[in-house]
């Protein structure tokens, strides 16, 4: 296809605005709390209010993109995200900021719901892994650049400047869409029909309850919400199986072993890795005594490795068995998590950086090839739904990863403030959490290795 790399650049830029916004805002939370007088609970929602709708709405929007056209949904998402970012420049209250962040979450679900599907549309099968690898690398680049650029922008121009950057990124992506995506829409005729609103509503309630409930565990309220969400998810599955035009074709999941196992592998991988950076940051700042800037430079090693190797892994997945490459990547992650079990106050920083670099390499070997397997295992009419489901697995896995971490902190440290006398308990918490992640990842290696259809 003509201009396929220009279109890929536009899709990558649109997708990069979301992780950049998510990672850069962390460095501005203190200033936001001071100016808008937000307490700790409200401040935590600055991040969560964007993540929740993004996780819940990706699959419904993926289906909508299949029905009305993926370009239309991408344009709508870019405009909505840019407009919400621009409005954040003028908010005068914490409540209004949370509303705008919620709108950004809705918009990000639109963009992520169709981005990988568009890439699959414009690239031939033998080049899809490479293209997905480039997209993955750009997302990691945005994640890595967010804390650095966000910190610099906040320091010199104030926290609102972060939203100006994301608004400008969105405007640039929108201009690229109008320039390079003329006369394109990528609408699947086989997906035309009535949108399954009941299914979408039940699914949304189920996922909200699961994510919200898991974040509250081990409290009784969290257990009840999680159980209610799982029950609603079962209801959703049985309901969708009886629909002529379901929001999510359950046959795509129940009868497609490769698709099903690859999604489970992705879910487990994110659940076992996302909180590693958070845990290592606690170790570096409390146990090792580094400041936030120094810790940030050390933690940068992991996303840099991901960014550099993801295109290579994606290209390799076009030429070799992508499933085996992904399995190898997850096995590398297991080894790194095992090495982190031996983390101690005496651990040399160079050794920790080496583990983080290899961990990033393992994640790169897993992510792009696994996405290639998922997207190549479904029919063309389901590309939007498959793209959105992949994004949902990522966000749900990330939420589970933080939920597991919070539970472990609650068990080993409780409500105590982290002071020098608590460091031994903190180290014990880290080791047990890494052990849980390693066991999870071992299960993920197993699922990844048996994903192929049985003869």
How widely separated are the two ends?
Answer: 35 Å
Output the radius of gyration: 21 Å
Chain-averaged pLDDT = 84
The topology string of helices and strands comes to HHHHHHHHHHHHHHHHHH
Share of residues in helices: over 70%
Number of DSSP helices? 18
Shape: globular
State the major sheet: none
Structural overview:
The protein has helices at residues 4-24, 29-36, 40-68, 70-88, 94-122, 128-157, 160-180, 197-216, 220-241, 250-254, 257-273, 276-287, 292-299, 301-319, 322-340, 349-376, 383-412, 423-449. It is globular, with a radius of gyration of 21 Å. It has 455 residues and is an all-alpha fold. Helix content is 80%, strand content 0%. It starts with a helix and ends in a 6-residue tail after the last helix.
Spell out the blueprint of helices and strands.
Elements: H1 4-24, H2 29-36, H3 40-68, H4 70-88, H5 94-122, H6 128-157, H7 160-180, H8 197-216, H9 220-241, H10 250-254, H11 257-273, H12 276-287, H13 292-299, H14 301-319, H15 322-340, H16 349-376, H17 383-412, H18 423-449
Helix pairs in contact: 1-5, 1-6, 1-7, 3-4, 3-5, 3-8, 3-17, 4-5, 4-7, 5-17, 6-14, 6-16, 8-9, 8-17, 11-16, 11-17, 11-18, 12-13, 12-18, 14-16, 15-16, 15-18, 17-18
In short:
The chain contains 18 helices and no strands.
């Amino acid at each position: 296809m003509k201009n396929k790399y220009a279109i890929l650049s536009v899709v990558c830029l649109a997708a990069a605005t979301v992780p950049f916004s998510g990672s850069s805002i962390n460095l501005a939370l203190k200033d936001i709390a001071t100016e808008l007088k937000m307490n700790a609970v409200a401040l935590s929602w600055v991040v969560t209010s964007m993540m929740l709708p993004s996780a819940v709405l990706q699959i419904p929007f993926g289906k909508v993109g299949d029905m009305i056209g993926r370009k239309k949904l991408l344009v709508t998402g870019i405009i909505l995200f840019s407009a919400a970012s621009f409005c954040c420049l003028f908010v005068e209250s914490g409540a209004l900021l949370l509303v705008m962040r919620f709108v950004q979450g809705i918009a990000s679900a639109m963009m992520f719901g169709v981005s990988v599907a568009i890439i699959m549309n414009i690239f031939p099968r033998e080049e899809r892994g490479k293209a997905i690898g480039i997209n993955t690398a750009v997302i990691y680049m945005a994640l890595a650049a967010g804390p650095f650029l966000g910190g610099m922008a906040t320091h010199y121009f104030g926290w609102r400047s972060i939203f100006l950057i994301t608004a400008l990124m969105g405007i640039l992506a929108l201009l690229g869409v109008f320039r390079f995506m003329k006369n394109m829409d990528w609408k699947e005729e086989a997906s035309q029909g009535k949108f399954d609103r009941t299914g979408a509503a039940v699914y949304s309630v189920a996922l909200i309850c699961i994510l919200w409930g898991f974040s509250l565990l081990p409290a009784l309220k969290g257990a009840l919400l999680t159980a209610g969400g799982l029950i609603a998810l079962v209801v959703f599955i049985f309901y969708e199986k009886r629909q002529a035009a379901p929001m999510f074709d359950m046959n795509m999941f129940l009868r497609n072993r490769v698709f099903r196992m690859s999604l489970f592998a992705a879910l487990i991988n994110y659940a076992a890795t996302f909180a590693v950076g958070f845990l290592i940051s606690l170790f570096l700042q409390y146990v090792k005594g580094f400041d936030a800037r120094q810790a940030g430079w050390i933690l940068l090693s992991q996303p840099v490795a991901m960014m550099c190797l993801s295109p290579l892994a994606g290209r390799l997945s076009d030429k070799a068995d992508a499933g085996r490459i992904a399995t190898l990547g997850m096995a590398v992650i297991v080894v790194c998590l095992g090495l982190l079990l031996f983390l101690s106050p005496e651990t040399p920083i160079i050794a920790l950086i080496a583990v983080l670099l290899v961990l990033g390499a393992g994640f790169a070997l897993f992510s792009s090839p696994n996405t290639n397997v998922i997207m190549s295992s479904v029919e063309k009419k389901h590309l939007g739904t498959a793209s959105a489901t992949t994004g949902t697995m990522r966000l749900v896995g990330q939420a589970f990863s933080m939920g597991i971490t919070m539970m472990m902190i609650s068990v080993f440290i409780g409500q105590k403030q982290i002071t020098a006398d608590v460091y031994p308990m903190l180290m014990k918490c880290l080791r047990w959490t890494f052990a849980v992640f390693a066991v999870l990842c071992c299960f993920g290696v197993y699922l990844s290795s048996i994903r192929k259809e049985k003869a």
